[in-house]
Structure to design on (730 residues):
């Protein structure tokens, strides 16, 4: 059989062993590829010989197999995986479409061959039966008219032989077709398909076109202007579509939707030819935007599978204005790497690094990936959530067996188990990397490939003891109007007339305990360490309770206002920030507490006056009263509990005025470094003293003065002891 001079793309066995996984063909010219995509729509009835050969090979691998006792039409051996040869994207797409149509109508086509007595035929070996069925479908689709053959086309002997054979029996075949339609009361062969398949095809044909804007080539503003110049009008949603209209996506800011009827016209436009707009299912845009939302630094990204080059290019475009690099795993060969570089260069991508190894073969400690922050994992899946199976196979290197699964409406248990096992292995391997998050995305409708895979991976504990564990977090997209509404940890889109099915999950490392507290807690913790002066809540409390430290030398508080006196009434318990302003007083009382520990509260020591100790922070050494440090804020958070208990106990405290006398040097004059004006602390002064700027005069009787000082100190000791006991109880 003659071979085409185009690049050969190998077929290899997939997880099912009887289906195939297609490699992506090289597109040398992007503008030419847009024109060829259009040919898929307008030149559907023109097939080259190589297209028939490839379609027959694909159909041979995915056809419905019957028991030998019920097999009336025999096919050749399909144990050997054949090699496919595609000239371009157009021939690749048409080959798959032709094979899929032959699969959908396999029962009908076999019955036509048998009813017309065209089959069996001695001149047609079993190895060519697949080619016979494929070409029969194309012949009836052309209304049994002759195929147009181009002079430059290289002929394939087997194709010309089957074509001549079928065309010679075209009248018998047409009669058999008419009898079949009458028997099944069908206006056309489309009506003989199961209702589920008919709805699926209608849904796929009506699905709006989803495109994303390549910011390497243009911007949203430029695209909107170009569309306006072409006569397009922006509408609110897809439900408002009316011919030349488009709408913005609600989740992704660079994604647009167009009516499906404009596909041919859009693919012919310069916006597509110049790679300014790129056609791709929205599910992949959701995945890359989820990665983008997780990155607030210049961290790198690991794409676990090559998948669609459009997904990689979209990820690259979103990180265009950063220093991030996109590492793509599983390139495998230099030829594939050159092909991808050619595609990315046409799109303007410059921040992509290609890795030849499969993702599971790369060690988590690989030095190339040490700056990676997020892993994008889009594993091979059953793909039943995808609206157009041909697009999924071509863009995602999907399993060709998806075509058979779609017709059957389900995936076999064995295949589903193998897929889920592979997905779990890849996700667990991703969790071994020192990354912040992993985005897991599939086009499956089965929980075995979605929620169960994620939950099993989280329960495995594969991260070990050295790395923080992963946990589920709700996906958040940049353009969501209300991110807090995302309460479900799994994001799903159902298969419908406006979107394909999609599953999305994000797992992220558990944060430190310090990162799990509120902003107020963080500020309180910083203040307790002396990193902040005063928190907002403490400032409000200070303003309400008006606990101020005043200097009577100038009559101004530490905040620059006139001194105030606040009452300490009823069950109010002073906050730590307020008590900290008088920490020096507590230190001064410490000495008295040690001496009076065994004495009653009301005991007064008449002989030994209370003299300020050096360095205790009493008025004698208060040089910088306005700049007292907020040391006691360390108990800021515990004060809430103390206040609650104080409310329950209803401790009634009487207003007390504490006035310390000015320090008099034993030498009759101020010591060096001491201010000439005395200072005192006023916690709860009487109203009659609210306007007093200077301390009261000293009593003439020293003994009376010392007795008053002892009484005041005893009361301070009592209050301080009570406060200390309450704080210890917390």
């Amino acid at each position: 059989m003659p071979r085409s001079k185009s690049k050969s793309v190998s077929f290899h066995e997939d997880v099912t062993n009887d289906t195939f996984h297609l490699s992506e063909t090289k597109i040398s010219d992007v503008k030419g590829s847009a024109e060829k995509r259009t040919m898929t729509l307008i030149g559907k009835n023109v097939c080259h010989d190589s297209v028939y050969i490839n379609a027959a090979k694909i159909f041979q691998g995915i056809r419905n197999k019957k028991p030998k006792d019920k097999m009336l039409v025999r096919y050749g051996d399909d144990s050997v995986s054949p090699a496919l040869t595609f000239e371009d994207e157009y021939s690749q797409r048409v080959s798959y479409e032709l094979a899929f149509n032959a699969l959908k109508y396999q029962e009908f086509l076999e019955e036509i061959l048998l009813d017309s007595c065209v089959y069996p035929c001695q001149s047609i070996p079993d190895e060519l039966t697949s080619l016979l069925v494929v070409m029969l479908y194309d012949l009836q689709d052309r209304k049994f008219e002759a195929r147009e053959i181009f002079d430059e086309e290289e002929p394939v002997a087997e194709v010309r032989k089957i074509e001549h054979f079928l065309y010679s029996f075209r009248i018998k075949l047409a009669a058999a077709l008419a009898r079949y339609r009458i028997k099944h009361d069908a206006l056309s062969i489309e009506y003989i398909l199961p209702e589920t398949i008919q709805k699926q095809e209608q849904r796929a044909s009506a699905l709006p076109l989803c495109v994303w804007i390549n910011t390497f080539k243009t911007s949203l503003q430029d695209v909107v202007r170009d569309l306006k110049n072409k006569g397009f009008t922006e509408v609110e949603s897809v439900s408002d579509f009316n011919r030349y209209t488009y709408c913005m996506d609600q989740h992704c800011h660079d994604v647009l939707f167009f009516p499906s009827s404009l596909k041919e016209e859009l693919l012919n436009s310069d916006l597509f030819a110049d790679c300014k707009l790129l056609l791709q299912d929205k599910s992949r845009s959701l995945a890359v935007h989820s990665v983008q939302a997780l990155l607030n630094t210049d961290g790198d990204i690991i794409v676990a599978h090559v998948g669609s080059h459009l997904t990689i290019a979209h990820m690259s475009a979103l990180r265009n204005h950063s220093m991030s690099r996109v590492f793509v795993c599983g390139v495998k060969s230099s030829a594939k790497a050159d092909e991808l570089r050619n595609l990315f260069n046409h799109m303007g991508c410059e921040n992509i690094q290609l890795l030849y190894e499969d993702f599971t073969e790369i060690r988590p400690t690989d030095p190339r990936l040490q700056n990676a922050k997020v892993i994008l994992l889009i594993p091979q899946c059953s793909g039943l959530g995808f609206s157009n199976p041909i697009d999924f196979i071509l863009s995602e290197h999907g399993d060709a067996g998806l075509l058979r699964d779609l017709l059957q409406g389900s995936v076999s248990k064995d295949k589903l188990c193998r897929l889920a096992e592979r997905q779990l292995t890849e996700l667990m391997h991703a969790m071994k990397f020192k990354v912040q998050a992993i985005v897991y995305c599939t086009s499956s409708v089965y929980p075995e490939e979605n929620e169960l895979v994620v939950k099993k991976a989280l329960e495995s504990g594969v991260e070990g003891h050295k790395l923080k564990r992963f946990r589920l977090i709700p996906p958040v997209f940049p353009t969501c109007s209300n991110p807090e509404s995302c309460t479900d940890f799994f994001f799903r889109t159902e298969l419908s007339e406006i979107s394909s099915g999609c599953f999305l999950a994000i797992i992220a490392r558990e944060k430190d305990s310090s990162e799990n507290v509120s902003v107020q807690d963080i500020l309180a913790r910083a203040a307790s360490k002396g990193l902040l002066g005063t928190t907002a809540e403490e400032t409000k409390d200070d303003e309400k309770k008006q606990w101020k430290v005043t200097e009577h030398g100038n009559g101004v508080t530490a905040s620059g206002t006139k001194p105030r006196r606040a009452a300490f009434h009823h069950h109010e318990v002073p906050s730590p920030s307020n008590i900290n302003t008088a920490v020096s007083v507590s230190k001064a009382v410490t000495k008295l507490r040690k001496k009076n520990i065994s004495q009653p509260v009301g005991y007064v020591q008449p002989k030994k006056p209370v003299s300020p100790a050096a360095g205790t922070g009493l008025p004698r050494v208060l040089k910088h009263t306005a700049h007292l440090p907020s040391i006691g804020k360390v108990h800021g958070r515990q004060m809430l509990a103390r206040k609650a208990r104080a409310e329950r106990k209803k401790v009634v405290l009487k207003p007390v005025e504490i006035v310390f006398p000015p320090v008099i040097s034993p030498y009759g004059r101020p010591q060096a470094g001491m201010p000439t004006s005395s200072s005192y602390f006023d916690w709860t002064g009487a109203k009659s003293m609210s306007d007093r700027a200077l301390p009261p005069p000293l009593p003439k009787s020293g003994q009376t003065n010392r007795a008053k000082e002892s009484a005041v100190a005893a009361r301070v000791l009592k209050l301080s002891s009570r406060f200390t006991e309450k704080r210890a109880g917390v």
